[in-house]
Write a structure and sequence with these properties.
Elements lengths: L5 E10 L2 E10 L2 E6 L9 E4 L4 E4 L1 E6 L12 H10 L2 E6 L10 H14 L3 E2 L17 H4 L16 H14 L2 E4 L12 E2 L2 H5 L4 E2 L2 H17 L2 E4 L5 H12 L4 E5 L1 H5 L20 H13 L4 E2 L14 H4 L10 H10 L6 H16 L13 E11 L18 E11 L2 E5 L1
Parallel strand pairs: 1-4, 1-5, 6-7, 7-8, 9-12, 10-11, 12-13, 13-14
Antiparallel strand pairs: 1-2, 2-3, 5-15, 15-16, 16-17
Helix pairs in contact: 4-6, 6-7, 7-9
Length: 423
């Protein structure tokens, strides 16, 4: 951690509460002062931020860093470098790993890699059940203080009784259940949305009920247990309405969606594995309902579900490619270009859903305030650029945004006051 004082000079500071012009002084990794014309002392490093926008570092509650177990797809080092390049200072990796973090011993294998290789802050999830098989609960007490929450992401917990017990444990330990909601028997070997594109091109579809049916079940269980319940990557209009109603009734529920669900529909698909992810990109009606959910606060968080695979795994077309796309390096620019600049949400709302809300919900701490850790992203909101996966820091190359013309790009990322990325 740098002992030198750093002054971010002349930028616009964007928070969830507003945008102001001010300098930021950082001492010993902490935000020491925010104000106009902060005087530089001898030895201070002054970073010119004129025409740039300073934000609290972004937080991604849903990434796949693939280690331990799948380092041919991504590593802690490459994934967190991609995060830093996208303006993220904290990421929460999902537990579909080998070994799965379903015990203190297995979790420690992941934490060891994080301590050694991470460029940004990494707070992993533990599994809900042993090996993510959906049958036997893990020991919540032994891992709760080392993890963001408990998730079997990649698999929905099929047993209502197992999920009931998991939520009771989450309530008892004040932990969060972060649920991938999917009813296996409704999948019927589908691989894209069961909609117009699937019918026109003779693809097997995944019905919307496979997602919202399990959310409906879980809302009742969360109500009964009184636990904190976070729904991962929602994609359907029914999911939005169920969560909106549950919030109104006082259920402790939060949720996330991803940039691709907010900016595309199934008729934008191409016969290419870079358009295949789980849940799938759904109809225009679903997309519009998700946008409305962001606008009215039903949807709390934007997360990427950054899920890298090898080029070979993503080269088999829609039917046979692996599920998952990368998103850390495009997330903010997609939201800024397609939602903020389009007048759908404000810049303050973008900061809320990409930084302030995930920090608040998951108790991560931080933010652009005196006394907080200096986890900061500096963006040029005027820079226009074209998405070229060959330039990515991540090992993954499959993105549905390839070739998109975007505006807004990260110039610098600081973690605890240290520059971890500079472009």
């Amino acid at each position: 951690m740098s002992e030198q004082r750093v002054i971010l000079r002349g930028g616009e500071i964007a928070t969830e509460k507003g945008v102001i012009s001010a300098d930021v002084a950082i001492e010993n990794g902490i935000i020491a002062e925010i104000g106009n014309d902060i005087a530089a002392k001898e030895g201070d490093e002054v970073i010119d931020c004129h025409s740039l926008t300073i934000m609290s570092g972004l937080v991604d509650l849903h990434v796949h860093l693939r280690e331990p177990g799948f380092s041919a797809k991504e590593t802690i080092a490459t994934g967190t470098m991609a995060a830093a390049a996208g303006g993220f200072t904290t990421v929460c990796p999902m537990p579909n790993l080998s070994p799965a973090p379903d015990s203190v011993e297995n979790l420690e294998k992941e934490l060891e890699l994080i301590r050694r290789d991470a460029k940004v802050k990494v707070i992993p999830y533990a599994t809900i059940t042993r090996k993510r098989y959906g049958r036997e609960l893990v020991d919540f007490d032994s891992m709760k203080d080392s993890v963001a929450g408990f998730s079997d992401d990649g698999s929905g917990v099929q047993s209502e009784e197992v999920m009931r017990q998991a939520m009771q444990e989450a309530a008892r330990t004040n932990s969060i259940i972060a649920a991938h909601c999917e009813i296996d028997v409704l999948l019927r070997k589908g691989y894209i949305h069961d909609g117009e594109y699937a019918r026109l091109h003779n693809h097997r579809g995944i019905c919307s009920e496979s997602e919202w049916g399990q959310i409906e079940r879980d809302i009742e269980l969360a109500r009964e247990a009184g636990c904190r319940y976070h729904v991962c990557h929602i994609s359907t209009k029914e999911s939005v309405e169920l969560i909106r109603q549950a919030k109104a009734e006082g259920v402790k529920i939060t949720c996330e969606t991803a940039p691709h669900y907010l900016t595309m529909c199934d008729m934008d698909l191409q016969e290419d594995g870079r358009f295949k992810m789980n849940p799938p990109i759904r109809s225009a009606e679903d997309r519009d309902a998700l946008i409305a959910g962001v606008q009215d606060g039903t949807i709390d968080v934007i997360a990427t579900d950054h899920a890298p695979h090898t080029t070979e795994e993503k080269s088999r077309g829609l039917e046979f490619s692996a599920m998952g796309v990368v998103g850390l390096e495009t997330s903010f620019a997609v939201i800024y270009t397609k939602l903020v600049r389009a007048g759908i949400i404000s810049l303050e709302k973008a900061v809320e859903i990409m930084s302030a809300a995930p920090r608040r919900i998951f108790g991560i701490g931080g933010g652009l305030a005196v006394g907080e850790r200096a986890d900061i992203a500096i963006f040029d909101l005027n820079e226009k650029w074209s998405v070229n996966p060959a330039e990515f820091k991540t090992m993954g190359r499959a993105t549905p945004f390839e070739g998109w013309q975007l505006q807004g790009r990260c110039r610098m990322t600081l973690v605890d006051g240290e520059v971890v990325y500079k472009r």
